[in-house]
């Protein structure tokens, strides 16, 4: 994944000549009220859908995949709404543009960090496959290399490092971006900023939960207070409360990672490792060991499928952010070209 370079953006010292005259006052038309309400009701529905039904759902790859999928849908909804607002890029204020570009580049960085963490988990699966291959044989000679592979798994998982944790300033700065630029005398601008607030809250919350899940550090968790004036506020409050409850239970359990699918595999690896050692010492129950091997194979497959699915969702979100950023930069280039051509025509016009 790579990020595009930003072009030089035109700066109009005497005001943007292409800026449309916005209606004075902050009263919204019935059309703008409808667009805003439709977006906020859709956001509330998505947040309710993400609210875990039980504590065991939080930090499963199934739940995390749903979270990333909904985040993709939310950002696609924003693209649609911006088009419905008919608010050209040339009407965006300098602060809006700077903030959007700043947020988008941070989102791309975070996606890369998540992908790196998921890649480490995939590497661990290759080690497990080697162990399970050795254990498929009925020969007791295969138990020694199988134990060696399980040792390698334990070492790989315990030594993995999260890029999210190492790049914490990105998440720290993200929280500051909840403050929105001031909008005066632009009803469409006010709608856009209110919509962007909801998008940023949902994005920041999901990214912080993912950062905690991968790094295990509570420093990455955020408590976001949302005013109840937003139509989606209650749904978000309920979601945050349920996820925080799952986090507390995870802390009290003493598990080595918040990722539930990874914990399920790790618990079985440890049991199997202990049984193999018993076999080498001459005291293992063969049937019990075979049952555990089957169980480990099943959990390992679930982990792999979950990692693969979540990786695809993270990649999709990356390209949604990237395409939105590219579209904005392309429009800025077009505005700059039109402005330069207009200034050139003025300079060559004869009196």
TrEMBL record:
<dbReference type="Pfam" id="PF03087">
    <property type="entry name" value="BPS1"/>
</dbReference>
<protein>
    <submittedName>
        <fullName>Protein BPS1, chloroplastic-like isoform X2</fullName>
    </submittedName>
</protein>
<keyword id="KW-0175">Coiled coil</keyword>
<dbReference type="GO" id="GO:0048364">
    <property type="term" value="P:root development"/>
</dbReference>
<dbReference type="GO" id="GO:0048367">
    <property type="term" value="P:shoot system development"/>
</dbReference>
<dbReference type="InterPro" id="IPR004320">
    <property type="entry name" value="BPS1_pln"/>
</dbReference>
<feature type="coiled-coil region">
    <location>
        <begin position="286"/>
        <end position="313"/>
    </location>
</feature>
